[in-house]
Amino acid sequence: MTKSELVQKLSQQFSDMSQKDVEKAVDLIFSEISTALGKGNRVELRGFGAFSVRYRDRRVGRNPRTGQKVQVEGKNIPFFKAGKALRERLNTGRK
Prior knowledge:
The chain is of the alpha+beta class. The protein is built from three helices and five strands; from the N terminus they run H-H-E-E-E-E-E-H.
């Protein structure tokens, strides 16, 4: 699902809000999540999951075009861990 599909679905569900207002709300939510992660904070959405920041150590990678070894610097990356309710919903009825 893309952001525009999410906005469209929410504006259908909340018909009392204009699509422009729904888009602003979605943008604000994403912005706040990004800001919190940028500060190194964890963001938990109960029943869905948690976003956090993890540090990936420096490593030796390979240039896919030439195969040459390249030093990749350490960096912070976003990490998502699905919540219990989401995992159960995804696996309902699976064997």
